[in-house]
Amino acid sequence: MAATALLQTTTTGRVGGPSSTTPSQNAPPTAEQKDKDNMAAAQPQTAEEGKQFVARYSDQQHPLPPSEIQQDPRNKDLGRTSRGLSVRDFELVRTLGTGTFARVWLVRLANPAEEDQEKVYALKVLRKVEVIKLKQVDHVNHERSVLADVAGHPFITTLITSFSDHDSLYMLLDYCPGGEVFSYLRKAKRFDEHTARFYAAEIVLILEFLHESEGVAYRDLKPENLLLDAEGHIKLVDFGFAKRLGNRETYTLCGTPEYLAPEVIQSMGHTTAVDWWALGILIYEFLTGYPPFWNSNPIEIYKQIVSKPVLFPTEPAISPEAKDIIRQFCTVDRSHRLGNISGRAERVKSHPFFRGVYWDDVYYRKYRGPIIPPVRYPGDAQCFDQYPDEKAEREPYDDAMKKQWDDHFKDF
Amino acid sequence: MSGNTFPGRRGTNSNPFSGSTLSGESEQTSLGPISKVMEEEENDTVTSPATASFNFAGKGSSTFGSPFGGDASGQGPPSSFKQSSTDGFPAHYGMGRRTSVSAESLNPTASSNDNWTPPFHRKTPDQITRLKKSIFNNFLFSHLDDEQSSQILGALVEKPIPAKGIKVITQGDQGDFFYVVEKGIFEIYVNPAGSLQPGPDGLGKKVATIEPGGSFGELALMYNAPRAATVMSAEPGCLLWALDRITFRRILMDSTFQRRRLYESFLEEVPLLSTLTKYERSKIADALETQKYPAGTTIIQEGDVGEAFYLLESGEAEVYKKGTPNPVKHYTKGDYFGELALLNDAPRAASVVSKTEVKVATLGKDGFQRLLGPVESIMRRTKYEPGVEVIDPLHKK
């Protein structure tokens, strides 16, 4: 569980600098590590194995350098399919969030061993019928595979395992008890610059990792998709639009209206550069409380995005450095956009807005979060809004659909 | 509270996140940091300049603090708080969670097996002129190139609306088509309930009329969203042009995809750029700008300072040198010239003149450096083959 795991990192994972927290980079794998590799290859087959694997998860995390996240054997078995697990192995405690075709539950293990009673997780449930109807089959597969690949990054939600049953797909994730940055932002109206800078810095590291180590575009950056862990650090969630691009552009329009980059709106083919645009919008919204382009009619938002410069209000006053980084991110021409130009994320990190930031300290979570969520115990969900119950009637996933579609869901 | 860094206080040698680094000598115990953080957090809300921005009307107490150990039963989630005013906020700004939107995923025809070609519906020159006037000011069409534009014009299909009172789109329904009015008058109705309701007033209020040349339903070209209004014919004998989202997006996607691959394959042929990685080539391909020149245009002039390089996308061009009446070289599709401008500021060694109408893709030295850094360092990866100088007449001797 995130909360306990994080407490452990504060005591064990923070001694000295980056190099001392990690095993020697060039050393050949030890026999023990090799064993783990071999074990990792064997997926949990029975419910009991699956549950044990899930229960073991909480001991595993402390930040690894970005270059080692994929190699580390402890992460290799994360994000795999658990054929034996089913939703009956979990007790659904309450809803944490809902989307167009998904609902995320706070869960704990059903009939847990005594030492596992405190352990809680987030279970994302996707209805196959809805996924198909909304033409999101490709997207949910991207979501699962990207999350599996990035498991272990300190600021990205961890996919522990996935499974499926007749009509649903399940992704078991670490539980992030602090709730959405969105909630804090709306409550506070706006953030001061040091708060905005703290979150922006963690997001810069997420984007650097996704873009430059993984070749992944995230494509849905917004306060609603940023959770806080128990210590107030960012966890990026909802990888429903994340996509591995390689060196190619991609074309499917997706995102959130206020945060869409101009090249997405105009179907020009888009790349990881869309995330830097969105980060500009996000910092603006952090500092002012609302995004720079908005209207109740989405078409009007899009017209503004493609044609209007970002304008700043007189109140609250925004520093020249903040204005500059927002403008540089929100540059229509991608060949001028900060983050997309030479130097990539490194160039972002050296922007005056981040002057004085020690990036290794950001990565290893040595700065204290500006907001410490009021989390009273590991499974405390008071930081999350209440959501209405699921509608009882549900369109059935019938045999014809199963025949046509189930093969598309075989990775779950 | 101590060490909190706000605008105006930043720039001293303090920690940009408020000086609360937890590393080094302030190594913590497992419970220490939480209680410590908590205290400071409470403190923060009292004395910190942040108070202004964390000032929740209706809640006099701390902002994010004090739930630890205390009776938090009365506390809701952070966003349960209702603002008593929206001072400083734009009027009508929706404060709720925003839903994501997504179109169906499409793959470029060239990368899949099907042989999709855009539909073509013949139109008269008059109709074409009217359609161009109607749609090419629209932000969804204004940036299209000639090829895309003519494919879009061809794909628009006639949709007769014979009678009065026919609902072309219905508020709340899924939308797949964009329409341009060729003939007749249409009325727009909006029901505040968000969808068409049964009964005599179910249409809602009439908010506008659309006349020939007008258009509606453009959001459907982006993704499938519920229609925001009902549009109904106001007279018999109306005529619309219709375009569906999949056709629109495929036309744009296929031509962009093909052009990008073309540029990348051109770039692979340029020896000066042979050390570029695939990622870098695709970056350059992304930034190339297309330009068209009529026959007889001097694209680069001998003796000028070179600032951009060119890929010949279509057409033919010839190379002339001063004092030589006949062209010294002939360029066709896929050839490139002027790339040494990326390397130095030497004057152009020859002129390039279009023989036919040509389409070139071009990028300036500025753009190249902005995207990939100094050209020299890229060159240094491996030595630039001197043989190219012989092949390329533009190289300064």
From TrEMBL, chain A:
Residues 1-12 have a biased composition (Low complexity). The keyword ATP-binding applies. It is an enzyme of class 2 (transferase). The keyword Transferase applies. It catalyses: L-seryl-[protein] + ATP = O-phospho-L-seryl-[protein] + ADP + H(+); L-threonyl-[protein] + ATP = O-phospho-L-threonyl-[protein] + ADP + H(+). GO terms for molecular function: ATP binding; cAMP-dependent protein kinase activity. Keywords: ATP-binding, Kinase, Nucleotide-binding, Serine/threonine-protein kinase, Transferase. Residues 90-354 form the Protein kinase domain. CDD domains: STKc_PKA_like (cd05580). Pfam families: Pkinase (PF00069). It comes from the Eukaryota. Its EC number is 2.7.11.11. One of its GO terms (cellular component) is cytosol. Residues 71-82 have a biased composition (Basic and acidic residues). Residues 1-82 are annotated as: Disordered. ATP binds at K124. Residues 355-412 form the AGC-kinase C-terminal domain. Residues 18-28 have a biased composition (Polar residues). Belongs to the protein kinase superfamily. PANTHER family: CAMP-DEPENDENT PROTEIN KINASE CATALYTIC SUBUNIT PRKX, CYCLIC NUCLEOTIDE-DEPENDENT PROTEIN KINASE. This is cAMP-dependent protein kinase. It comes from Venustampulla echinocandica.
UniProtKB/TrEMBL annotation, chain B:
3',5'-cyclic AMP 2 binds at E339, R348. 3',5'-cyclic AMP 1 binds at E218, R227. Residues 1-32, 45-65, 76-87, 99-116 have a biased composition (Polar residues). Keywords: cAMP, cAMP-binding, Nucleotide-binding, Phosphoprotein, Repeat. GO terms for cellular component: cAMP-dependent protein kinase complex; cytosol; nucleus. One of its GO terms (biological process) is cellular response to starvation. It holds the Pfam family cNMP_binding. Residues 140-269, 272-381 form the Cyclic nucleotide-binding domain. GO terms for molecular function: cAMP binding; cAMP-dependent protein kinase inhibitor activity; protein kinase A catalytic subunit binding. Residues 1-124 are annotated as: Disordered. Belongs to the cAMP-dependent kinase regulatory chain family. Tetramer, composed of 2 regulatory (R) and 2 catalytic (C) subunits. In the presence of cAMP it dissociates into 2 active monomeric C subunits and an R dimer. This is cAMP-dependent protein kinase regulatory subunit. It comes from Venustampulla echinocandica. The lineage of its organism: Eukaryota, Fungi, Dikarya, Ascomycota, Pezizomycotina.
